[in-house]
Write a structure and sequence with these properties.
alpha+beta, two-stranded antiparallel sheet, 2 helices
Amino acid sequence: MNRITKTARRHTSAIGAALACVAVLGSVATATAANAATAAAQTARPATAAHSTQTPYVMNHSGEENADKGKAERNPERLVLSEYTAVGDLHWKQWGAEKAVATAEVSGIWCGQACLDKPLKATLTLSDPKSVHGKKVFSAFTLKLAGGSGAYDAEDLDGKRPLATI
């Protein structure tokens, strides 16, 4: 009996390790594809309206090169909102001194594969600009799913949330 239990544990551990590897590889492949799509989309994007020195940036942690420090951007195509949620296919309707508003496709660990299979449509609002290291940046976001949050119980869908500013 003891030998069977040890064998079963080893098989369970091996299966768990294999599933973890598949999850990591899936995440890397998704991130790589997203980065490639973002680069292609940015080169094809039309020029946006000029911004004044008072127009805030958003600290974007999208992409491996920006994960730690972030990059100050305006009108990004893709944006990491928190450790749980990212938005892509951003279409900016407004980018002003007090707020920025866009339509977006939402993904997050709280909706898993469902977001990849059928992206969730939402409206993103960036707000509460503040000065950080001499740059004005938005410090909060509100995310509203089209049709309401429904089955998704996620902090990022509950009112105004803090946004990384460094």
